[in-house]
Design a protein that fits this description.
Pfam families: Plug, TonB_dep_Rec_b-barrel. With about 850 residues, the chain is mostly beta strands. Helix content is about 10%, strand content about 45%. The chain is globular and about 100 Å long.
């Protein structure tokens, strides 16, 4: 049978299915005596599961008691926790990409730290232009700065949203509107608010295993959630998950490695250059959410998370025949005479002379003796993230509400590089710490609301005001000496630092911090039954560059009972992070087909100042949104147009050639350019009784266009990646049917064409693609559900990297030609928004109690 043949190719996955299913069954049996099916849980299981729900009450974008997404003056997507489960992936960034078309994230192979904490884009802007909240409280950003990505997020330092277990989420609210006047720095593109479950009794245990159609990327995820009563009037809800996955490989053999193998060199890696998703050794995530009433009008709450992930990804291959300063000096092998005090003289050996290399005496050292067929360094990252929020909220007799809270968050990303420092010759370490980056943030908030009765209004004027203190600290921790230094053989021309990824230099280690204070006033008035007006003003003062004041006005007018108009205008800002202003880094980059060492230094470093560096200033923005909301019987439809202009955008500068013993060129962060981003979001849902159940239809589409309006220094390649690095058109259409025991989901995903802007793949424009997802669930018992599904069921791939050499005159101003596919081994464009793994499938068992 075909089914059996398919599963024989994936015996590891089958074994995991059986083992995890048995584990779930065992846990279910132990808990069965005390567990029972909750009525509200059954309702949730059988409810309409469309990706965008309008009737849900949202708390983001308003400081009143909350309103439905349809009645909001700004566009808000509400995604249930169950929507995240109906997918093959385990990463929240990928899950959001599937259900929110204006949200883009791509694979980041060979992107150094960005491979482990991938940047994401909302409404065509950078990863740090979106503010992330957890239970309405600001999240700390990741320690990873995205040095080597393409597109709008190159140089960004955004939050890491992959640290939450999906089973912990009650719902996710995506505010697609500028909100810096309401929430402060970063909320230029919008706000994503993750709301945690607060059940007091219900719980569930899940196990999911999956793989790709190619038979690699086997993955496992085990999750659990349980709510408990806390005292007589409180709750504590605990969630945790554990995952791991094998790497994927979508590569072809490089020309350099193939040549070495044809000459008889042994131990040539095949493929020499691996392009795919990294191996995840482990990925543990946990969240605790709790609240308890202190009195009839006062409540204490606290929540937090702890997560730790370890993953490994390959770096650029070092070919034995042509890596200058490592294996070769020109056409000859790079050889060290270890007996340089008058002993035996080492011969001159051509790099392709296998017999000559094999005949080298003991005192004549070459890296060939360690890695005879070339080597591919690898980078292992360990990301540790934790946070804690605690506060007291309540209401006084006069209607004044208060929320006093404190939070602390920390993200640490440490690196181990498996590589070689050729300048140390035979004494080099091969596995060494490459240092770490740490981000610490502390927030203190005091938020108040007060209803003011006004006869001229249809309802009370809601006045909100508050204060905030925030402190950010970015720390660099030095790596092993061999990871960044130049050894004794550097004077002979051997390259220093660990190949592929240079560690944090001891001279660059240290910390930098910045604090700010803020005050805001927010007004919300239901002027008439059909007209809602809101306004906000926020003042913030930062160490280093002074203060900024931002405003927002929004309105919603219900023209009829079924049609409403809404719009907003706002100013915003994004403060440069202490990391962007102070980080130092050295890494290997591809420059017109050649690997070179490149450094990133603070903009106030003397080397940066010599080529134009100055102290960073905030980005500033103006934006407006206008749209319509229609309820046409069972059909809900929203259409919103947005326009965002950002001045003094912060990014990495072009490369500057400098005279430095550590690197050939450098970049630094600078305020350089202005962009205008505009687009249209369309969301529609429809639900109907069909057969023995309910069928829901949801359509979500986005068109976004970004143009660089002004720039003093950006090169044409960088401008092209900012403007076209993500698809202009994205969308999905979902059909979901639920009856008594069965449910089925079918989803179509559209990815428009885009520019794959990496230095090694110039002028490649992959075409538009369509993928389809399918999931079927069956309630085996009242408490146990079995689910099988697949994403990209037709195993579609993006356009392949071309085989022929490409002229680079268009953007880089050179006549160089090289075979892009075999030169670096990438079969598919590395920044593909649909991914490069093809089809994936999964099996999930869920026990609810």
């Amino acid at each position: 049978m075909t089914w059996n043949v398919k599963w024989k190719r994936n015996q590891k996955v089958v074994s995991r299915v059986m083992n995890t299913a048995s584990a779930v069954a065992l846990m279910a049996g132990v808990a069965a005596g005390a567990a029972y099916a909750q009525d509200n849980q059954e309702t949730e299981e059988k409810a309409d599961q469309s990706a965008f729900q309008f009737e849900e009450i949202v708390t983001v974008g308003t400081r009143s008691q909350g309103r439905s997404a349809l009645s909001s003056p700004a566009p808000i997507d509400v995604i249930s926790g169950r929507d995240f489960e109906s997918q093959a992936d385990n990463d929240i960034s990928n899950l959001l990409r599937t259900v929110v078309p204006s949200y883009n994230v791509s694979a980041q192979p060979i992107s150094d730290a960005s491979t482990f904490v991938r940047p994401a884009s909302l409404r065509g802007l950078a990863a740090d232009h979106t503010l992330v909240l957890l239970n309405n409280k600001r999240r700390h950003r990741s320690a990873v700065i995205n040095f080597y990505t393409a597109g709008e997020s190159n140089g960004a330092q955004g939050p890491d949203i992959s640290v939450f277990p999906t089973i912990a989420l009650k719902q996710v609210e995506v505010l697609r509107d500028g909100a810096a006047a309401q929430y402060g720095s970063d909320a230029i593109a919008g706000v994503i608010n993750f709301r945690l479950k607060d059940d007091t009794e219900a719980g569930s245990i899940e196990a999911k295993v999956g793989s790709t159609y190619e038979g690699d990327g086997d993955n496992l995820l085990i999750s659990a959630n349980k709510g408990f009563e806390l005292g007589s009037d409180g709750f504590i809800n605990i969630s945790a998950s554990y995952g791991e996955s094998d790497p994927t490989d979508r590569s072809v053999q490089t020309a350099a490695a193939a040549e070495a193998a044809s000459l008889g060199f042994s131990d040539v890696p095949n493929p020499a250059q691996v392009w795919g998703t990294p191996r995840v050794h482990y990925d543990f995530k946990s969240v605790v959410n709790m609240g308890v009433n202190i009195s009839d009008t006062t409540r204490f709450y606290a929540f937090g998370n702890y997560a730790k992930k370890k993953a490994t990804n390959g770096l650029y291959h070092r070919p034995v025949l042509s890596r200058d300063g490592v294996y070769t000096f020109g056409e000859n092998a790079a050889i060290i005479d270890l007996d340089g005090d008058g002993g035996e003289t080492c011969p001159t050996v051509a790099a392709n002379d296998l017999a000559g290399l094999q005949g080298l005496s003991a005192n004549c050292w070459s890296l060939f003796k360690v890695y005879p067929g070339g080597f591919t360094p690898s980078l292992t990252g360990t990301v540790t993230d934790y946070s804690m929020v605690a506060g007291v909220e309540g209401e006084l007799d006069n209607g004044l509400t208060y929320d006093i809270s404190a939070s602390y968050g920390r993200n640490k990303t440490g690196f181990i590089v498996d590589s070689y420092n050729a300048s140390y010759g035979p004494d080099s370490a091969t596995e060494m710490s490459a240092g770490a980056f740490v981000q610490n943030e502390t927030n203190l908030n005091a938020d108040f609301t007060y209803p003011v009765a006004m006869d001229s209004l249809a309802d009370d004027l809601m006045v909100a005001f508050g204060l905030e203190y925030r402190r950010e600290e970015f720390e660099s921790i030095a790596g092993h000496l061999h990871s960044y230094s130049v050894g004794p053989y550097g004077e002979l021309g051997f390259g220093g630092s660990s190949q592929g990824y240079a560690g944090v230099n001891a001279a660059a280690a240290g910390s930098a911090s910045r604090s700010n204070i803020a005050a805001y006033l927010d007004l919300e008035a239901q002027v008439t039954d059909s007209l809602l007006l809101t306004g906000a003003v926020r003042w913030e003062d930062f160490d280093g560059f002074g203060s900024t004041t931002n405003t927002k006005l929004a309105a919603r007018w219900d023209v009829t009972d079924t049609v409403g108009l809404r719009g907003s205008f706002s100013t915003g800002f994004r403060a440069p992070t202490p990391g962007q202003a102070n980080v130092r880094n050295i890494s290997s980059l591809l420059d017109a087909g050649n690997i070179t060492l490149s450094g990133i230094v603070p903009p106030t470093d003397p080397l940066a100042v010599s080529v134009g560096g100055t102290e960073l200033q905030p980005e500033t923005s103006t934006s407006f949104t206008v749209g319509t909301v229609m309820s046409l019987g069972d059909i809900d439809l929203t259409v919103d147009y947005f326009d965002i202009t950002i001045d003094d955008r912060i990014s990495l500068s072009p490369f500057f050639d400098v005279d430095s013993p550590d690197f050939a060129n450098l970049r630094y962060y600078f305020n350089d350019f202005k962009t205008n981003t505009k687009g249209i979001d369309v969301v529609a849902t429809y639900s109907v009784e069909m057969g023995n159940g309910t069928t829901s239809f949801s359509l979500a589409g986005n068109w976004t266009s970004t143009k660089v309006k002004e720039s003093a220094s950006l090169d044409p390649l960088r401008i092209r990646t900012i403007e076209d690095g993500t698809p202009a058109i994205r969308g999905n259409f979902t059909i979901n049917h639920v009856n008594d025991k069965w449910r089925a989901l079918v989803r179509a995903n559209h990815f428009g064409s885009y520019y794959n802007g990496h230095i090694s793949f110039t002028d490649m424009v992959p075409g538009a693609e369509m993928t389809f997802d399918l999931e079927v669930g069956y309630n085996v018992t009242e408490n146990v559900e079995l689910v099988v599904g697949a994403s990209n069921i037709f195993n579609n791939f993006p356009d392949e990297v071309p085989d022929e050499g490409l002229p680079m005159t268009t953007l880089l101003g050179t006549d160089a030609l090289f075979d892009t596919k075999s030169a670096w081994g990438a079969k598919y464009p590395e920044f593909s928004p649909m991914g490069i793994n093809g089809g994936t499938y999964y099996v999930r068992v869920r026990y609810a109690f």
